[in-house]
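Re: weekly structure request thread

Next one in the queue (111 aa):
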Amino acid sequence: MLRLKSIGVMSAAKISGLLYAALSLLFVPFLLLMSATMALFPKTANQPPAALFIVFAIIAPVLYGAMGFVTGALAAFVYNLVAGWIGGLEMQFEGNISAPAAMSPQMPPQF
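Done, posted below.
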């Protein structure tokens, strides 16, 4: 049984930020469709401008990526705290577990 004792906070933050930014791209076509639809119909009172949705479609990946970065860092930090108290997640893998590349013997360079 292997145990995950800690997670790299910056590593988790970067991965989470990129995932959130990529997932936000799913919403961009809908925002642009809303903008195009609103531009076709006559304006009513209290209607937001169509350009607002275009601007949000442009900045949504950045905003979602930043939120993902922060939440990923917080989640990894909290996991590390809790894992220090109770020992972390136990994981079971099948197959052979090989040594990491940094621990395997290195071949001398050949010229």
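The two ends are 43 Å apart (CA to CA). The mean pLDDT is 86.
Next request, please.
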